[in-house]
Each structure stands twice: as structure tokens, then as C-alpha cells.
Design goal:
The protein has 710 residues and is of the alpha/beta class. 56% of the residues lie in helices and 10% in strands.
Amino acid sequence: MGLSATLLFLVQPLFAKMTLPLLGGSPSVWNTAMAFFQGVLLLGYLYAHGLQKLRGMTTQVVVHACVLAVGAFFVPLAVSDALDRPPTDAPAFWLLGLYAVSIGAPFFALSATAPLLQAWYARTRRPDAGDPYHLYAASNVGSLAALAAYPTVIEPLTRLDAQTTGWGIGFWATAAAVLACGVFVGRQGGGAALSAPAAPRSSPVSWSRRGRWMALAFVPSSLLLGVTSHLTTDVASAPFLWVVPLALFLATFVIAFARKPLISAARAGKINAFTLALAAAALALPQARWEFAAPAHLAAFFFAALACHHLLVKARPDADRLTEFYLFMSLGGVLGGVFNAFAAPVLFDSILEYPLALAAAAGLAAAADRPGRRDAWAAGGLFTLFLGLIVVQERLADPNLALGGAAVGAGIAAAVLVRGARWFYAAALFGVVAVSGAALRFDGVIAQERGFFGVLRVVEGDGRREFYHGTTLHGAQSTDPAEARTPLTYYGARTPIGEALQARQAAGARSFAVIGLGVGATACYAEADDQWTFYEIDPLVRDIAQDPDLFRFLSDCTPDAPVVVGDARLTLADAAPGAFDVILLDAFSSDAIPTHLLTREALALYVDKLSPEGVLIAHISNRVLELESVVGDLAADAGLAVRVRKSSKLRDGADVQATHAAVLARDSETLAAFAVDRGWRAPRRFGGRLWTDDYVNIPAALWRKRAAGR
């Protein structure tokens, strides 16, 4: 069980990383991947449940050997080339198909191991065969070991090809061990197949009890994806960050299913209420320092999930219904993943699934404290009320109505639940939803869209119109017609980006490629004979930038410039060698850096597409990652000349943002205009291992940013 769990939770960050270059490193890639893994895990549990209907152990072992053999056909792991490029309209379903044809079979074969071996263990003559649930804790220890090892040992020290080869060897070893367990159980019957479990058959399980299993699994699963999206949206889509919430999630299983839990159910419930309030405070301060916000959200997630899993263990059936229990538990987890990955982007225009899941966790805890049917209905009704208020706020853009209704709901909650021993869950339920509802609104929103790559908002006020991706400003335009063609924010004439574009135009550059469209502000640097091409992965960003009722940079300055939709690593490869005099790399998604665009292989692609005297301009502004030394090391490895400059509002004016940019060229003569007396300098060097498609060191970039004082 430990081997199987280790492989299952190694393949998740491993294969998700392998597919990042196909879809831009969006946090939604990880959410979709998690939904796939949960879905296949459900199929594996369903298969294990059905396999127990075959009463002879010999038959079970033979059938499972065939399933393992089919899975072995797909190792070592590789990204299948059976599918074309990802479509721009429904990339999530394309990604599900890619995972299915690439790793679906081996993952399915391994996913049945935990319930199957526990069911087989219950057939043995051992004294504890009647309660094999503690083995599930042991399984999750293997999962935790895998998640801890991947970012700290496996990813930094090995290449992807070595990782996939090692995973294949582990698959064969696990298959042999599982089949050996089956043979051992068969021999427990004196060489004959056991025809029935040792324990007598228990009474049937009611559908209300099954529904409780599903609900208690649904909420932690939704929380897992919600908190992961919340963190990775403002940091980076990389396995290092993905595995932290997942590791905490698994730790809650280890604790809850242990014979002697490290944190009791009562203690977890008490702490849960306070951490929920802490998360509400963090949600109310969306620009809070990452060092405060991340621990607050992770603590709230951990104790909410732990409280739910304690309740799940309390509701478990006898061992003869073990596979049924895991089946419905898995179904609840899948529904939680489906809700976040597929339903929430359709239902909500902003990221509301995370605070709603926190509120649901508080509601479940309140209902558990007062287990009567009346109290359960009251808790469910309160949650439905708050959900309705949030939807009203979303659809009518009237936060005052939602907050007023939430205040009424808080009074009802207090009246219904104050007589319970844990009345503070009512306050937590109100606080999370009401406070987050206030925090997530933006004043002056005139347009808002949500797609696979995140939430996009257009906000008007103070004489200009601003474009936000998540919580990060990605461009602005003056509402004064006389100033409408003046680039603002990171692209003003005195910023490093504006200065670099003008310097290259003065040197004769005429062909420009921009990776990352934003609102198209750089288009207004175009001159009469210039040729500009924009590359943008998100079709919603393209639609906003091309809508003259929202932004007019493209329509006024480069109305005929093509906007190529798709990941730049794929679409830029179609351009002819030497096609561009300037490439501007500005592909950010709310500070979630698509790391595959800052690797040795990516830089080689950019250089190939530059003319002999071409220049790459890299926008490396970031709130939490230090990217200057990453670019400096890559440039040195490629033998390129490089200069960097970091501007500030104080120097460049109130209408621009502090901007950090680097320019790279084949020789130093090309960069003669980027002189020291103008603020340009050689970049800092880290000197460590280069970022490549096989290796990205996010922890080091985080640490360097902290050491540099942000």
C-alpha cells in the first residue's frame, strides 16, 4: 500500500509538470489534473468494490493481474501525441483526454490498491482483520513521503526522463507486491480460495449515511482545489506550491484514520473555528503580505479538512462494507473536484468556491455538534441562504444587498445554533462568507469575465480604465481622449519597457512580437511601417483588448495586427527563423509565472526567431519571485549580452507602475543604447542550476526575493 500510494502521488506533480508547457502554466491546469486523478481514483474504487463480488481469491488475483498488465503497457510515462494542440475554447476537456490516453491505465491499476488490499486483509486470520481502516493511514504516509520527496529531492536532482523511468520500475515492483499479497491471502485458506470474509455481513447502509460520507468528502476536496488556486494565482504554477496543500490534505487522513489520532476530533473542531476566522481576515485583505496570507489559508484548510475527516471516520461502516465506504467517499471527492474545476467557472464570475467551501466546512461542523435532523436542516438552510446572497451579489453587482442579507442570516444563525456547544461555528460561517463577499468586490467594475485562465475585470475610476487579472493590474488606459494613446502602467515611455521599445525603433527595428497581450498598450508605440504580432493564450483577454468600448489601444494604433491565440511556446514556433527584430516577453497571469517561458529551451526558441541584431525584452516584475538572476544565468549560458533596469513611480510618474525588465541580444554592441548612466546595469547572477523544461527551482527564487527585501 505504501509503494502504491507513493507512485500515485508522485505521478500527479510529475505529469502535471510535463503538461504545463501545453497550457501556459495556469493554476487551472493543476485543478483539471486533480479532477482527473480524483475521477480515475473513483473508477479504481468502483473496480475494487466490484472485484469483491468475485468470492474466490484466485479469480480476484488473476483479474487484477490482467489490469496491472494493461497498466504496465503505458510505462515509462510519456505525454501522448494522439491529440492535436489544445483548443482555445475548451482546454479543460482536452486536458482530461490527454491525461486519459497518457496515464489513465497505470493510474487506474494503482488506484484500486488501497481498498483492495484492505478488503483482502479483512479476509485473513489476523486478530485485527475486522478493522483494517488503520491501513488507510499507512497508505497516506506513503503519499506524504512522495509529496515531500518530489520538490525537495526528486525534482532538484533528477531530470524528467529519469523520473519517468524510475516511476516505471516502481510500478513493476508494486504490481509484484500486490499480487504477492493476493497469493498470501489465498493461502490463508489452506491453499483453497476463501469464499467469504471472516466477519459476518453487517446490516445494509442507508442512503442518508452514504450522503453523509459524500458530503464529508466533498468539502475537503473542494477546499483543496480552492486553496491551491488561491495561492498559486498570486505566486507560480509549479509542483513546489501545489504539493503543500495536497500534503496537508493527506496529513488529515493520516491523523483522522490513525488508531490514536495525533489531534483529536474535539481539539480539531475547536481550532477549526478560529482558523476559519483567520482565513476570513486574510480574504478581507487581498493585498496582504504573502507570509501572512498563505499560512492563514493553509491553517484554515488543514483544520477544516481534518474536522471533516474525523467526522468521516466516525461514520465508517463495518469492515465487510469497506469498499462501499471508500467508493462513496471517493465519489464525494470527485464531485468536489468537478465543482471547482468545471462548475464554478460557469456559475461564478470570481473565485467564490473557496470561501463557500470554508463556509460549508463550518456548517458541517455545526450540524455535527447538534446531530438532530432539525439542526442539520437548519445548518443546510443557512448555507443555502448565504450561497444565494453571494449569487445575488455576483449577478446584480450589489454588495450592499448581499452584506445586508448576510447580517440578517447571522442573526438567524445565532438564534438557531447558539444553544449548541459550538455556537462559534455560526459566527465563522457568517464571517467567512460575508467578509469574503465584501473583499472580493471591486469598485467601479464595468466588465468581468471568468475563464480557464482566471478572472478578468475592467475597472473604471480616477480618470482611467484598468484591467485586472486576478488581483494584479495588467494595464490601463486614460479615459481622456487626448491621452488615450499614451501607454500607462508598466509601458510608459520612461519605464524600462517603453525605453527599450523606443531605443530599438530608433535603431531601425520594424518587426515586433509581444508575448502576453494585456490591454495592448504597447501597440501605440507602433510606427507607420512597423509589423506587430501579439501572442496571447487566453481568448478572453484578446476579446477585452479588441473591444473598443473597453480599450482602444489595438483599434486605434494597430487595427490590422494579428493576435495569435495559444501558448507562445507552441504558436511562436510557427514563425520563421529571424522573423522579429524585437520580442517582448510579458506573459504573466496575476503574477503566476508560466515557468516554461523562462527556461533554456524557451530562450533558444526566442533567439531563433530574432533577427541577427534582434533584442528580447523580458518583463520580470514580480511580487514574490526574484527572476533577474534567472534571466542573467540563462543569458550567460546562451552567450548573450544582457542589461536590466528597475524603475519606480517616483522616477517615472504617477501613471506608471514600478517596472523591472531585462534586454538580451547576441552581442553587447546591440545593447549600446542601454547605458549605465541611464540606469541599465549587468544582472545579478545566482550561479546555480539553470531553469530548464526539466528543472525549475521556485523555492530558490522565493528565498532570493525575501533576502533582497522584496
